[in-house]
Design brief:
2 copies of one chain form a homodimer. With about 300 residues, the first copy, chain A, is an alpha/beta fold. Chain A contains 13 helices and 10 strands. In chain A, strands 1-2-10-7-8-9 form a 6-stranded mixed β-sheet, with helices on both faces. At the A-B interface, helix 12 of A face helix 12 of B.
């Protein structure tokens, strides 16, 4: 049933998303000792895979809900994704953003027609403000990662990757709020040929690693990582899927993230976020285990501040 | 006859090159007021269009010449291109490089099996050293841009672009030594539907602009440009083709180059050289003349030092 659901989700969001290209590099394969296939969601609309889940979440609202609108809180890619997908589907979108968010991110949300509501830069303030908007405007709250429609939408990137490369042995994805890895794990389970999913996570924000170890959702104790998209926490919707379908989580250092990011930029010639490099960094850390395998790597996004690069 | 020749050249180099992807961006189209199609030769093997011409030049040698080998002088992309294409075709390649060339470029040439011969960092020393190698080793000299087989090879990027988008009104290319623009102009003439070719050139290295104005090849008076691939001079093989088939040359400032480069990186999410941005910068300077047209832009390469970016 989840398989049919994923097929239907993919069909319904297809008019609103790009089937992004898959890149390879002989030089990276040489370093890796395996064949690597990079699914380039940095080329996705608004620059990240989040467009998939946001679009699916809005499509799955009732007509009454669509007429009223949606709200989320995000300072990152989901803010732009919900604004743009809402605009594409003719739905109002309120985006709660911390007042300290960079102007360029606020401008992007505005450019996509999102209605920005500023709040204090704390998680409590974000949640409270979103709740207030939800009640005052009678709109539907869409969580950036802990929502089944968002998760299924994110899973379509992996479905497309497997349509290109059906015999992948492993797919590596970065782990932040858990939406991408949960969706990827479902798609790999239903559409892969015994394809395993492994998460990459910064040591500096390793809630998923510790949650899988303990069997209970753990909070991040620090979020001091360059991979700014991965500072968020797992949730009760995606965690059970991750427990069931994800092979393991590999933690990486900040230096490993920067080195992998540099390799991606220099060799694949693409602009991608530090968060995207975490998946490759995780693979490279244990590459000797995966000799001569076919490996998928999901490049999650490309929205990066060019004036603040780590190299 | 040139048309048949171009078709045959494309067929013969196809096994050794990538048919690179064509990217678009709604946001850039909005700024441009036209539909832009970016032919991404930064994704080409060794990271630049030069792979096409180098491969074709070697394929067109006699068996006796192939057995002996080739030589060129270059500190840029043609050095890597000749080394890699020679390696692919089982031919020896001597690459004369200035002793001051960055280690990373020397390493890349070595990585592709090229035999590096260092010389003093002057044009005279480069030419003299290449001549010495040519005589001593009895190898064939391949000029990076002033060689008809190189020119025809470079023209295949435009041929592929027109196979994707047959109705382009204009194609913009950067002008350095003149090989790319001459090959592009031939392909546009034979395979386009009344498609005009326009060159972009830095004010700081405007030999092609002044040569077309005067009807005689002019030397660069300065080469103080960030577009390091465009410091070279036109030659007597490509200049007549440029005179006959290129619509015009638009000169751009260093600030225009950097702004166009930033737009490409931020919006197309690709890593590309400053030289590549010159074509887009030229278009943007005169964009009001080209309203609602279909425009091809050739992104020439992606070999850039990430630790020395202009933004």
């Amino acid at each position: 049933m989840e398989k049919d659901k994923l097929i239907q989700v993919h069909k319904s969001i297809q008019p609103y998303i790009h089937n992004t290209t898959v890149l390879t590099s002989k030089l990276i394969d040489g370093i890796a000792g395996s064949q690597l296939f990079f699914k380039c969601e940095n080329f996705q609309k608004m620059g990240a895979f989040k467009m998939r889940g946001a679009t699916n979440a809005i499509i799955n609202l009732s007509e009454a809900q669509k007429n009223k609108g949606v709200v989320t809180h995000s300072s990152g890619n989901f803010a732009q994704a919900l604004a743009l997908s809402a605009q594409s589907l003719g739905v109002r979108a309120f985006i709660v953003m911390p007042s300290t968010a960079p102007q360029v991110k606020k401008d992007a949300v505005k450019g996509y027609g999102g209605i920005i509501v500023e709040c204090e830069p704390t998680l409590t303030a974000r949640e409270t403000t979103a709740k207030e908007i939800q009640e005052k405007e009678d709109v539907t709250f869409i969580h950036p990662s802990n929502n089944i429609d968002v998760i299924l939408g994110q899973g379509t990137a992996c479905k497309e990757l497997l349509e290109n490369e059906p015999d992948l042995d492993y797919i590596f994805v970065p782990v932040g709020g858990g939406g991408l890895i949960a969706g990827t794990a479902l798609s790999a389970y239903y559409f892969g040929n015994n394809c395993k999913v492994i998460g990459g996570e910064p040591f500096e924000a390793d809630d998923a690693y510790r949650s899988l170890q303990s069997g209970v959702i753990q909070a991040n104790t620090s979020t001091n990582t360059i991979a700014d998209g991965l500072k968020t926490q797992l949730g009760d919707v995606n965690f059970p899927i991750i427990q069931k379908h994800v092979d393991k989580i590999i933690r990486v250092t900040e230096a490993e993230i920067v080195a992998a990011m540099k390799l991606i930029w220099e060799r694949l010639k693409i602009v991608s976020e530090p968060s995207s490099a975490v998946a490759l960094a995780a693979f490279l850390q244990e590459k000797d285990i995966f000799k001569n395998k076919k490996i998928g790597i999901i490049i999650s996004g490309g929205n990066v501040d060019l004036s603040h690069l780590p190299f």
